[in-house]
Amino acid sequence: MSAVSGKVKEAMERASWIRRMFEEGLRLRQEHGEDAVCDLTLGNPMVEPPDSFRKRLKEVVSASTPGAHRYMPNAGYPWVREKIAEHYRKETGLDFGAQHIIMTCGAAGALNVVLKSLLDPGDEVIIFAPYFPEYIFYIENHGGVPKIVPTNSDFSINLVQTEAALTERTKVVLVNSPNNPTGVLYGRYTFQALGDLLERYTSKSGRPIYLINDGPYRKIVYDGREAPYAFEFYRNSIEVTSHSKDLAIPGERIGHIAISPEADGASDIANACTFANRILGFVNAPALMQRVVAELQDVTVDISEYQAKRDLLYEQLYEMGYEVVKPEGAFYFFPRTPTDDDLKFVNELKKRLVLVVPGSGFGAPGHFRISYCVPKEVIERALPALNEVARLYGL
């Protein structure tokens, strides 16, 4: 008899390809040396946090405020939540207050808190392929049923297939913009069309469907684009986010939930999220980081470095013959593999000590993900192998 639960054992066997390839990278570096391996697997920012983060962190650490390291309300410090609500009021024009904000342990913690609060067993959550692999586990953690809807060839949302996937058990539609793994940005038209569809369905069924945007890459967008909030286009909207990417502090695990003031049952959802924050074992978001990020809502890392690497990679991949959609945000490429067997393709790159993630891990076989939040020299060292394997498959 196994010491591990059958459910967890089965989940481990289908666990994230991202982590699997990252761990393979650790093994290969031990075998071949640190500089021999080009690891393009994990979205782990290599840029350093902005100077304003370091300055604010020093101020907070140096302050001798009584009770600074004690428990606070499970939703987070009221003054921090008010600071973040002020940011949303300015950005959206909606009447956000501290009561609509819950501080969380990153966006992953936020998603689990929201899903725990909204889902009854058997409720369905629509996600769009390709999707962040952990979404499946987060949904199943709380008794939900993932409903996977494929996107169009350019990774835009297919509204016809989305409508066909809606049922009387649909409770949540989960989107991720800017997107991991594709880098695609959902614009105003997408959110307007999706909001109109969900409003029609909600009016017809009498049962609200909540649109959740997982938005930790919101501030990492290129070419003068903007990443709109869903709040403007659909009242039953919830934003979950973190500062892992925009401040380059993924190890600090700080994020929040923002619930539209116009959402059906907004107050009840906020109370449920506060309760779920506690009973899921998070208790509260890290006290130190709450006090730091409260003052940094309009700050982000310098994205010009990311954009330069995006432009370099796009030009090179295109010239090599790869079929690739140019990312508008985040720091990923999701090209099509020149063979339907994306695992075999990824293995060919691994033989050349270049690590990427197969599209199968994102629910989109026949693709692979490149993470370019790595030093430029790592990308440059990986290019000959990408070109060699392209030639191998006749590109």
General description of the model:
The chain is built from 13 helices and twelve strands. The chain is an alpha/beta fold and 395 residues long. The mean pLDDT is 95. The protein has a seven-stranded mixed beta sheet with strand order 2-8-7-6-5-3-4, with helices on both faces. It has two domains: 6-49 and 301-392, Aspartate Aminotransferase, domain 1, CATH 3.90.1150; 65-293, Type I PLP-dependent aspartate aminotransferase-like (Major domain) (Aspartate Aminotransferase, domain 2), CATH 3.40.640. Strand 3, helix 6 (134-141) and strand 4 (145-150) form a beta-alpha-beta unit. Helix 3 (51-62) packs across helix 10 (287-293) and helix 5 crosses helix 9.
